[in-house]
Model the fold of this input.
Amino acid sequence: MQLIDCHAHLSDNAFKSEQQLSSLLEQCCYAGITIIGVGMCYDDFPEVIRISSKLKNVGFGLGLHPIQKRVNDKVPLTLADTLHFEEWLNKHHSSLICLGECGLDFSKWLCPTSVERDQQRAAFSKQISFI
Done:
């Protein structure tokens, strides 16, 4: 049986060092585990792509998180935020495995108004239109 971690935040600060992350990924490779790292915002994409290029068992997906425009930022996504997403997909289409992190999050404390929910819906529709 092959195991696949289909949603790994490889650029997360939980990894204390590059060496720690590399060691973990190498152990997964040795065990036959495939990892799909996800980039959740534009400033996260380059690091996820860089990390995934190191080992054959690590791939990546890109997407724009519905409430996290930037790392450590809790602001609902809008249609305007998707403007450069297609460029990223086109640039990396040959190695991109999936769209990840795109979706809807209507948490009342993060997305309290119908306007924000409508903006998220529009941004989500735009992201999945690139499939």
In short: The mean pLDDT is 90. Residues 58 and 99 are 15 Å apart (CA to CA).
